[in-house]
Target: Hydrolase glyoxylase
Amino acid sequence: MTARGVRMAPGVYCIEIPTPFHVGSVNVYVLKEEHVTLVDVGPLTEEAWETLQEGLASIEIRMEEIKQIILTHHHVDHCGLLERVRRVSGARTLAHPLARPYVQLDESFMAYHDEFFTHLYSQSGVPADKMIIIEKFQKLMQTFSQPSQIDGLLKHEQIVPLLPEWQVLYTPGHSQSHLSLYREKDRLLIGGDHIIKHISSNAFIEPPRDGSRSRPLTLVQYRTALQMCADMEINQVFAGHGEPVTNHRELISSRLQKNWDRTNALRQLLASGEKTAYELAALLFPTLYEKEMPLTLSETIGHIDLLMILHQVDVKERDGVLYYHL
Model:
């Protein structure tokens, strides 16, 4: 079946790109104005490449007409095809500064990334034989993306180049590089993976940047960015996966409440005695914790962060492992 671009709003088209990942297909958006902008590109697979070309052709756009590419964030299902699209189109790439080393596949950063997670997972009590998950991340990046570059950097509340009606919003949490785009005249948000209708976005743990020694509290960031959006007038959120969101305030309220539900679950688990983050993840996500370890550990550690901020949980270190207790 030939892929088609679907008109979502004036000047906004969506192309659904297949991915090999559990999340399913990813939505990329075409802003068809005087200058064509592509928001995200999909993963580096032949199927994704062919689908993107077919989708563009269906809305009468040639790849060579794309003037700029905006990345909502650096995850491979959103940016893997970047270099291939750049080579054909000659388009400039715009993204948040923190996306740059991931997009470039910078070797020194990737080594630092591995060191960070080796330390984090060791502190979390992950068994030595499970540390292979770190190598799997590198393989994922190398398989479904290739080194590319970012030409221009975007910051919170700036007007998007070539798109005077669109504004950049910095919406970190799911990733440190996450951006959303807002058009005030019809209250549209292109939200990447910040707000998704059918699933709650994971606030992935990432290494600290800009010389900071402390890792970012990603779930706290995510909740803050969600609240910012809840305070905005938004008619529709065009998400990175799935259908548009038309009730953003109700959805955000539900997601924020689920965070507190999970902290309550953690307190109940700790009532029986101290536990590591890995042990808590296994109890919270018994069918997922091994095959989706980055996701489940990020979720667990993020909620532990909330409890630590509220002084409802304490921690002690023993032999390099962190043990949490009420």
Summary: The CA atoms of residues 220 and 233 lie 22 Å apart. The radius of gyration is 20 Å. The longest strand covers residues 163-170. The chain is about 35% helix and 20% strand.
